[in-house]
Structures are given as structure tokens and as C-alpha cells.
Amino acid sequence: MQKIAGGITAARGFEAAGMHIGLKKVKPDLALFASEVPATAAGMFTTNLVQAAPIKVTKEHLAHKGKIRAVVVNSANANACTGEQGMADAEAMTAQVAQKLGCSAEEVLVGSTGVIGVNLPMEKLERGIEAIVPKLNPQGGGSAAEAILTTDTFTKEYAMEFQLGGKTVRMGGMTKGSGMIHPNMATMLAFITTDAAIDRSLLERALGEATAQSFNMISVDRDTSTNDMVLVLANGLAENPEIKEEDADYQVFCQALFEVTRQLAKLIARDGEGATKLVEIQTRGAANLDTARTVARSIASSNLVKTAVFGEDANWGRILCAAGYSGASFDVEKVEIFLGDLKVAEQGRGIDFSEERAKAILGQEEVKISVDLNSGSFQATAWTCDLTFDYVKINASYRS
Prior knowledge:
Elements: E1 2-4, E2 14-19, E3 30-45, H1 53-63, E4 68-74, H2 83-101, E5 108-112, H3 122-132, H4 141-147, E6 156-164, E7 167-176, E8 189-194, H5 200-213, E9 229-234, H6 248-270, E10 278-286, H7 289-300, H8 303-310, H9 316-324, E11 336-339, E12 342-346, E13 349-350, H10 355-362, E14 366-372, E15 378-385, H11 389-396
Parallel strand pairs: 4-5, 8-9, 10-14
Antiparallel strand pairs: 1-6, 2-3, 3-4, 3-9, 6-7, 7-8, 10-15, 11-12, 11-14, 12-13
């Protein structure tokens, strides 16, 4: 497997475009990507009880069990908490794209992100969809990635190439996310495409496993949203033998999908609102996988840990405290804590260590915190960022 240039259009047969249609003041705010042939699709969605219209419409279209041709996404407006009108608007977006592409509305999925509780300006969207379809092209992935951003400070793309059944297969994706990020689907949109041929049920299973290890292991601020979704489309144009069982090819596909989702998830954590550092939390020596993941997510979600990293304060007690209230069961007196390769606690107690070296480690752009439970062989990794003054500034004036 190797990383290649590109994102959503790295795989064969996918085109994309992004443009400004007036939902934002200046920046691109409408994205569209499509497969030249119908593609197998799968999705994962927010666990929030409050779910936006595009989430509901996309779920309904996927429930038809048919193939998918395209995904249309707008930023600046979440189309959430907008009632029957919101549902009608989301359906209208898919219907218009379908009419332009010559397919059924059920073959088009829809996503939105932005301010909650405001109806979509459908005249702008209708004109925008009319204009964006002719702009679809194999080099349009970057513009689409830009058009889905909200408070993000950079576009987030990743692509790779690997072998399946003697064929070269490509997989790429784009995502957005910067605030309202928390495990079990964050405030994020992620779209992944591949030219692999794979059975739908196996694609759904692979996406679920990859999401559990990537997008469900990031946190910025303990908030989740109404619009979160991860979609993957597989159009089969690589002409590999279709993956129909959990064989060696399926394992390779899962490995590739996890790598793409992991890299995209890390980009979200790195771009947390106001963040200056990417923080990796590794739990090892756990008695089972659930314990490892629960502890890692709890530490990654701790505001006190995140502010300590921002202040370059080696306050290991906050790390142990967050592990302790995670709900996982472990022997506190076996716990060791490391900042980078520097041990700062063992047997659940502090030890002598160089505060100067600890501060230097916490001052780096990428900080690694390791917690060894010394109770088994399972491990898990979560990603977060530091919590800074700028986070408050950004979210105090989000609507304006």
C-alpha cells in the first residue's frame, strides 16, 4: 500500500466539483461528486437523537439497497431542525442532481453542514446545482474538499493505492470537521470513494469497523452534531474479482479503508478549533479492546488534559483521573503513564521526572500520551488537540 496524490477523485471513474453559490459570503459552499457508473454504497451516521433532514433523506435512499451515482453537499447551513420544509428541500436537492445526471433521486445522497435551525435558500441552491453539474471533472476533488468546510482552516484529503486480486485499486477521501468533535460520530462529514468491487454487506461491515477505530476515536470538545455522516462509494472499475466473503482480499480492503479513515480523522483532530497541537492518546496493556478504547476516548475528551497540554503542564494526575472516570474497570495500582518516552507515573503514583523535559515534549506540535494498564494485551489509540483561548473566541461568534 502506498499514499498517492488526491482525494475524492483519486479512484477511477469519479468526478467532483466545488463552487461558491452565495451560502457563504465568499468561500465555496456547494460540492458535488459522482461516479460514471452506479456504485455500491454504505454509510454511518450521527448518534444524536436530533438528526438533520439530509441525514434522514440519505438513510432513506440507502435503504432502497440500490446503487448510488452521486453525493451533493452544502456548507454554511445544516438544514437541521427545519421540519417538513427541510425534508422537502433535501429531497429537492437530490431530485435536481438526479435529473441533471439522468438517474433516479434514490441514486443521489445529500449532506449539509453549518448553522442549525435556518431553512435552506433554495433559489441559490437550485441555481448552484444547475451550474455545478457541468463543472464535474476528475481533477475537481480539491475544490469539492474546500466547499464542504465550515470553521476548518485547511482542506482534508487522503488517497492511497493497493493491490486486490492482481488489480491496482485506488481509494481516496475528503472530510471536514474542526469543532463539535466527540467519539461516536463527531461534527464531521467524510466521503470516501474507491474503484474496488465489493459486496454491499461487506462494505457496510468494513466501514463500521474502520469508523470504530478512526472517526469514533477523535475528540475536540465533547460535542456531537445533528449532521454527522461517513459515506463510502465503491464503483468496481478497478475490475478486481468482487469481494464476496471475508477472505484475504477483504482483509486488505479493510486495512486500506482503515488507513484512509485514520488519516482523515487525524486531520480533523489536528485542525480542532483554535488548536495548536495534535495529541495522540494510546492505551495499551488492557484486559480487552473495549477497556482500551474507553480509556483512550475518556482521556482524549478531558478538557483538563487538553488545557494542560496547551499550557505545557505535565499534570499526569488529570490523565489518570480521566481514565478513572471512563467507566472502564482496571487496577489503578498497575498503571504507568508516559509523555512521549518520558515516564511520569507508575503503580498509579507519581515519580521523579524532569519537568523541563516534560515541558519540551508537551511543546511539540505532535504530543503522544501513553497509558499502560499492565493488565492484558489489548490497545487502542485516540486523537484530540489542545484546548486554547481561540476555541472560545471562535464559538462565541459562530453565527456571525
